[in-house]
Specification:
Layout: E1 2-11, E2 16-18, H1 19-22, H2 30-37, E3 41-43, H3 50-65, E4 74-78, H4 89-97, E5 103-107, H5 113-126, E6 132-140, H6 150-153, E7 158-168, E8 176-179, E9 187-188, E10 196-197, H7 199-220, E11 228-233, H8 238-248, H9 259-262, H10 269-279, E12 288-295, E13 299-306
Helix pairs in contact: 3-4, 7-8
The structure holds oxa(dethia)-CoA (UT7).
């Protein structure tokens, strides 16, 4: 059995901050941010929390899936920014949407979190442990940012994306999934502190490892670049996406982006983009996509998704 996406949803706070507004509080400029990252604005939660955003995205995905909440038997939230340490965000979401039959847990693998949660869901389905999975990536990163640090505050944003996976007959794709804790100091957030990042180190790591992971996952599944309709990368930086496309020798228009609108939303970025593309009618049944994530840990990987 394989999990097929039968519903998507997303939510971002209505409030946002554009580059011009940021440049009034830290020494930066719209020009620098656009040139170095491609980001134009980011949505920032005022009233919303990680849970409330996750719930709104989840409700949309459930409606789109035409499944009812009681049919969900596994609910995973990927997040690094839960409201509280206990209970986990997934249980809080369960309570709000009445998914009373779901096993619920959170997963923290930073910006690779949604990818690892997707792989986890596929493994549960393949093992016959569940049938219908609600997968959410939700982040309120604005609470983990030092708004006086121009090297990080320009990058991140808040939001949530969700997908519902339903078990169908089919073969499980092999994945490429990697972590290297020895390089963890490149991107950290201590308890009670803010996100700190060696931007150049993370940039170089992403540009090196992501094409390798994608090449690996294509080989593992006997696929070629031309078999893939879209490469859905974690939305961290336009220049990273461009560099990956260049290294793979694949045209950039196969790499959709929405980071200009939302900034880097960590584990929410991939489901946010999937939902946007789904609603725009850009995804067709049977198409193969590649999901690729990278970030703190360091962790990275790539998986095949058959739409
Ligand atoms: O989601 C997890 C994964 N995270 C990522 O993928 C992030 C990866 N890294 C990046 O995207 C990029 O490294 C950044 C966008 C964070 C930074 O871009 P960069 O081209 O690597 O810039 P840099 O750190 O080399 O800084 C270049 C210059 C420095 O000044 P000097 O030393 O050349 O005088 C910085 O102090 O730009 C300065 N700078 C800024 N200037 C204006 C750093 N931040 C800013 C800023 N505005 N916001």
């Amino acid at each position: 059995m394989i999990g097929k996406i039968c519903g998507t949803g997303s939510y971002v706070p209505v409030e946002y901050m554009d580059n011009h507004e940021l440049s009034r509080t830290v020494e930066t400029s719209d020009e620098w941010i656009r040139e170095r990252t491609g980001i134009v604005k980011r949505h920032i939660a005022k009233e919303d929390t990680t849970v409330s955003m996750a719930v709104k995205a989840a409700k949309q995905a459930l409606t789109d899936s035409e499944l009812c909440e009681e049919e969900i038997d596994l609910l995973i939230v990927s997040t690094i920014s839960s409201n509280v340490i206990l209970p986990c965000t997934a249980c809080e979401v369960q309570k709000e949407i009445h998914a009373i039959n779901a096993t619920c847990f959170d997963l923290n693998a930073a910006c690779t979190g949604f990818l690892f949660a997707y792989n986890t869901a596929q493994a549960y389905i393949a093992a016959g442990m569940c049938k219908n999975v609600l997968l959410i990536g939700a982040e309120c990163l604005s609470t983990l940012i030092d708004w006086k640090d121009r090297t990080t505050c320009i990058l991140f944003g808040d939001g949530a994306g969700a997908v519902v996976l339903r078990a169908e007959k089919g073969n499980l794709y092999r994945t490429v999934s990697c972590s290297d804790g020895r390089k963890g100091t490149a991107l950290t957030c201590d308890m009670g502190d803010y996100i700190k990042m060696n931007g150049q180190e993370v940039f170089k790591f992403a540009v090196r490892q992501v094409p390798e992971a994608i090449a690996g996952v294509l080989k593992e599944n006997n696929l070629k670049e031309e078999d893939i309709a879209h490469f859905i990368l974690h939305q961290a930086n336009r220049r990273i996406v461009e560099a990956v496309a260049r290294r793979m020798n694949v045209e950039l228009d196969k790499f959709p982006m929405n980071l200009q609108e939302y900034g880097n939303t960590s584990s929410a970025s991939i489901p946010l983009l999937l939902d946007e593309m789904n609603r725009q009618g850009k995804l067709k049944r049977g198409q193969k996509l590649i999901l690729a994530g990278f970030g703190a840990g360091l962790s990275w990987g790539a998986s095949v998704l058959e739409w």
